[in-house]
Amino acid sequence: MKLITQLYRLIHINFVLVRYNIDEIVLGEHWFFPLRALVFINPYYWTVGRKLSRGKRIRMALEELGPIFVKAGQIVSTRRDLLPDDIANELAKLQDRVKPFPGKQAKAIIKKSLGQSLTSFFKEFDTEALASASIAQVHAATLLNDDLVVVKVLRPNIDKIINRDVDLLMSMAKTAEKYWQRAKHFKPTEIMSEVAQTLLDELDLMREGANASQLKRNFADSSALHIPKIYWDYSRQNVLVMERIFGIPIHDVERLRKAGINMEKLAKRVIEVFFAQIFRDSYFHADLHPGNIFVSEKNPENPTIITVDFGIVGSLSHNDQRYIAENLIAFFKRDYQRVAELHIASGWLPPNTRIDQFEGAIRAVSEPIFEQPLREISFGKLLLRLFQVAGRFQINIQPQLVLLQKTLLNIEGLCRQIAPEFNLWETAAPQIEKWLKKQVGTVSFLKRVRNNLPMWSEQLPEIPGMLYEILRETKHQQEKLRFEQSDMNRSKHNREQLTKIKMGYFTFGAAVTLLTAALTSYFLYS
Description:
The chain is an alpha+beta fold. It is built from 23 helices and eleven strands. 61% of the residues lie in helices and 8% in strands. The strands form three sheets. Strands 1, 2, 3, 4 and 6 form a five-stranded antiparallel β-sheet that branches. The protein has a four-stranded mixed β-sheet with strand order 5-10-9-7. A hairpin with a 4-residue loop joins β3 (136-143) and β4 (148-154). The termini are far apart. 28% of the residues are buried.
């Protein structure tokens, strides 16, 4: 039965692909040149194929194939380092709006998950969905204590639908990789793996709640960003209950102006919040499109930003942070040699890469950008160009950096929409430089030592025994050398042994020095 269902789905997928002339794109490859004439037999070639670009045809095909393909298209659209611009731009237009499933069915899912009737938890529950997306939909409700909340419910059997379609898409990706000439550049199986992981993560609403809680904790003392409260007692893997928020959608510029919102201050706060997530917290909301950001009307002069939908977040390592910060600073100083050196130092460039060629490629794409006025320079486009150059030099761009680039493009677009004259670099640069200064110097070193003290304290009791073994082995080697003959070969061996002895003493001295520094910093900063 499962095989028949999948076969039927595959037939339907192929029908839609033919309907939107995706077959023309595939058969245009040299592998299928003998079959090229089949394109002209397709009746849709003379209708849709003549009127629409390939990007529009792909987008419309994904929309017709259903919510999972729409979601996959949204995720794929972020991989601008792998996709042509015309396709990426069209896929970015995919809207996360699909027909809601019946509210009665949503109530049944909630009742089953919570194990009791809805009246045991909610005073009111609106069966009409507030919003509906490809994975879940949201209903307004009121708790028994009169708290206003929203209830997010996964679509029925969405996990089975996702697994079915992901298997099919992965098979298609592998086939494309095998027969498509440009597949090595587009990396379809790699893209599908990212899509699958993102979709599976979004199936766990408890994970989304945990993401929201972490972001809320990071901004607990800030009036710049508000994250809705999660009601854990009423939340499960397929049901998430959170505080209902009220605000103006950030893309509704006319309403924001009527409410008296300080637009310059709002744009500045958006940038400050985003870069605080990047450099202060190493943890950022990675799905900040306009539909997920609202603005509170309570304090127009110092507006509070409200974000929702925490299914996708990004996390950066210290190396990622340093890569981004130093590259951005070097770029804006037009120090392209430094940019190339940073890539070598990070180990991202293959060892046989010619630095001068990489530096020249970066200069070629960057100089036209920097000819624009500073306020018009786009961080997102800068990162995008960097990723595109990196791809040509076989650098494997990490998914978290792609998420960052996508989010940065969204943020920039919003800021330019609400405050066209806003200079993003003036707001971001001080934060980046401040973070970099904190990463160097004696104070930073002592803080890192202090952070490692708990681990070192666990290992400390073992150090005397280890040092004793080193000294005993050193003494043994010295006694052994006294009885050995001094021929040339033996002399060479002796020199090697003496080197080991010196290294033993050096290790002992280094260990003692390190221990002293650790204890000193502990007493100084505790």
